[in-house]
Amino acid sequence: MENSTNQRVKQYWNQGSCGTERTSKEKYSQEYFTEIEEFRYQYEPYIHTFAQFTRWHNKKMLEVGIGAGTDFLQFVRAGAQAHGVDLTEEAIANVEQRLSLYQLSAQEIKVTNAEKLNYPDNYFDLTYSWGVIHHTDNMEQALAEIYRVTKPGGRVKIMIYNAHSLHVLYMYIRHALLKGKIFKSPRWAIYHYQESYATKVYTKTDIKKMLRQFPHYNLRFYYWNQLIRDGAKFASIRKLLHKILPKWTRWYLAFEFEKSPVQA
Ligand SMILES: C[S@@+](CC[C@H](N)C(=O)[O-])C[C@H]1O[C@@H](n2cnc3c(N)ncnc32)[C@H](O)[C@@H]1O
C-alpha cells in the first residue's frame, strides 16, 4: 500500500499515461501508438542522444516509470534485456498492449514503486528514468534505489524538472502571484499545479549534493525544452526565448553518471 501522497500520484497517472494525450486514435490501436511515438521524438529528439538505445543491446537494463512505454519500446527493439516498472496499472497495460502489437517481448514489466525496487543490488548495466522521480513522494529514496540496483561501472540516466527554469517562473506567476498568493514560493506552485500532486523541481547543485553519498564518476548534466510546435500558444515568443536565454533556464534537467566500482 502506498502512502497517501503516492496514492494521489498513482491516481493521477492511472487516469492516463504520459504522452497518450497526444493522440485521439482508438486506444491501443497501431495508429494510437504511432502518433504517441511520432510526437515524442519530433518534439524531444534529444532523447535518442541521451538514452543511446542501441548501446544497450544484450545488456540488462531497467526503466523506472515507463509510462506509455515509448522509450521502453526502443530499448526492447534494440535487443536490451529490458525490465520496466511503473507505479500504475495503466502504464503496464499500455506497454503490454504495445509490445504485443509489435510481437516484441521484454524481460519483465510490473507495477512497482520507484522508492522500493524489488531487484537485487548491483544488477543492471543501465538504470534509466525520464520525467519520473520528481513525481514520487520521496525522490531521494527513489534515487538511492536506482543507485543500489545499478552495477558498479553501470550507468544511471535520469531526467527531472529544473528549478531554475522559465517554466517554473511561469507557473509561479500564474498560480501564485496572479492569485494574490504572494507568500507562496515557485516550488509551491509546481508542487500543487504541475501534473500530479507533489511534483518537485531541482537544481544541478541539489543533484550534486544528493549524489555525494553515492560514489560515482563521469557525472554530466544536460538542459532541454520540449521543442515548440508551430501554432502553439505564444509560439514565436517562446521560440525566441528558447534561442536567446541560457540553457540553464530550460525545463528538463537530465543527468547521467557511472557507479563507482566497489573499493577493495
Ligand atoms: C511524466 S510520466 C513519464 C513516463 C515516461 N517515462 C515518459 O517519459 O513518457 C511520469 C510517470 O512516472 C510514474 N511514477 C510516478 N511516481 C512513481 C513511482 N514512485 N514509482 C514508479 N513510477 C512512478 C507515473 O505513473 C507516470 O507513468
Characterize the structure shown.
- This protein is of the alpha/beta class and 264 residues long.
- It has one domain (4-163, 199-234, 252-259): 3-Layer(aba) Sandwich (Rossmann fold), CATH 3.40.50.150.
- The chain has helices at residues 4-14, 30-43, 46-51, 70-77, 89-101, 139-149, 166-175, 186-193, 204-211, 235-244, and strands spanning 60-64, 81-86, 108-111, 124-130, 150-161, 216-224, 252-259.
- Strands 3-2-1-4-5-7-6 form a 7-stranded mixed sheet.
- The N and C termini lie far apart (39 Å).
- The model has no long low-confidence stretch (mean pLDDT 96).
- S-adenosylmethionine (SAM) binds at residues 6, 9, 13, 17-19, 64-65, 67-68, 70, 85-88, 91, 113-115, 130-132, 135-136.
